[in-house]
Model the fold of this input.
Amino acid sequence: MYLYQMNKNDILKKYFGYDCFREGQETVIDSILSGRDVLGIMPTGAGKSICYQVPALMMGGITLVVSPLISLMKDQVSSLNQAGISAAYLNSSLTTGQYYKALQYAREGRYPIIYVAPERLLTDSFLDFALHAEISMVAVDEAHCVSQWGQDFRPSYLKITEFIERLPRRPVVSAFTATATKEVRDDILDILMLQDPYVLTTGFDRKNLFFSVRTPKNKYEAVREYVQEHKEESGIIYCLTRKLVEEVCERLTKDGFLVTRYHAGLSDNERRNNQDDFIYDRCRIMVATNAFGMGIDKSDVRYVIHYNMPKNMESYYQEAGRAGRDGEEARCILLYGSQDVATNQMFIDNNQDNQELDPITRELVQERDRERLKQMTFYCFTHECLREYILRYFGEYGPNYCGNCSNCLSEFQETDVTEEARMIVSCVKACHQRYGVTVILDTLRGAKTAKIQKYSMDENPCYGKCAEVPIYRLRQIFNHLLMENVLKLTNDEYTLVKLTENSEKILDENAAVTMKLAKEQPKKSQAEKKPKKSRFQSGTAGSALSEEDEPLFQRLRTLRLELAREEKVPPYIVFSDKTLVHMCILKPKTKEEMLKVSGVGEHKYGKYGERFLDAINRMN
Ligand code: ADP
Ligand code: ZN
Done:
């Protein structure tokens, strides 16, 4: 099924149901079609797949897509099949019989697009096929997997270059990733040996994600309240430990929610089942450790809650980024608790992954990890725009104000904290910088813990001097002093609070310390308070679903679930949330009108169009 006669816009409309290309897609496609290699660095949800799928249909020959994960391939192939495009995957999930059958069909030229696991590339059976086929493009998905810099290095990705070199004619090579760091980018260019590539970088920002940091007194209550208000939505709750996963999952179940869980301690079988329950919307909530996610392509995850602060910004952005892959509005909420730093610190100290490293390198790695943890902690305490903070961390600059994060939407007050700051510094000084954060703060609060007594801190001149200040406030001020480099923490066996060259200045009589603090009982931000309205922001049209249309939306969603079960595909592969919202807005009555809905191509219309028309007409 090659579409030489069709242009790229017609293909986009007819098969994918979209009216126009997104930023960057068109130039990438044009480069590929002109025979030039491409490196596309685009954030998750930007639409990388279309960049190689559309030209694959126009070039003739076969496009091989190298992809690291079975689940990802399966999803992509289902999506293509749903759109009426014939495609297949070759990986270890197939039986030998199925594998040879697929290769046979591939030889017959039935598939313009074939997804293949990197481990397969240099096997005899696959080479036997590839060396005799017309391979017009090799598209490398998740291309950062070639780089040892990232967290997702896959040795088998190094086979790609050798494979390409063995082909009788060099195909166009295109590579795609969402990872933007320079090291990774250079690695991709070098290792994949891209030739005079067109490099597209559309930036790192995910505008549809709302970022928020909270410090609730009771994390579980905060979560329960949130999921209660968002019952209809799919969401992931990440916890730092398996134990916590079990606990949160159990409590939510007891409280009547449909929840499932995922962590490395479960059997393969259970993990697979639980993952499917989530993907197929049998369970709306997934409670998991960071073992869950790589390769989870579920595009309609509406929120990602971090029950704990993760170990670094890279992990956070990757995990939070699993929300809103469909480009629709989604929320990333981090629940900070003071224990989180200590837990992460412990993980760093006991990290067994680096056993093979020599002691000096291991020490360097640990130091880097501690530094990253510090940056992560600062994220939880910063008063600037959270998006700005993230972008800057990854080397980009934003406009300082995004209007779509909890800081941009909170009211802060410049508050004088000179007195407390001075007390904290004096206390550290008076105990000769020998203790950690908890002891210092407990001393200031006048606590009577065993440690305080053991270290005789109740004799410290600052003992009880901040008894009136709530502990969370004291912590905020303490963190502010860390950020301002007035105090620092050591990275030795014990984390001790030390003075810096700036400490004395604070003790000076004329010094004043002010910091921004959220006004007491800040109003809940709009985006969090009214999920209904903002949830259905239609990205392109900018129009929101009105409340009267809510029942129709629910009706269409139910229909989608029915169809998905019949077809045995995840609901978001039938139609995305965005497409359903668009249907609710346009309320099409005829085929022509239905084809105007974003995401409804001709093939999908043929499969589902009438049933959706029916449902819409019945509501009116
Ligand atoms: P990525 O691989 O970059 O994370 P995908 O290729 O999965 O992103 O695309 C994300 C979503 O955006 C998908 O639902 C896809 O169908 C949709 N999409 C891609 N291109 C367009 C477009 N030009 N117009 C509208 N939606 C698009
Ligand atoms: Zn902001």
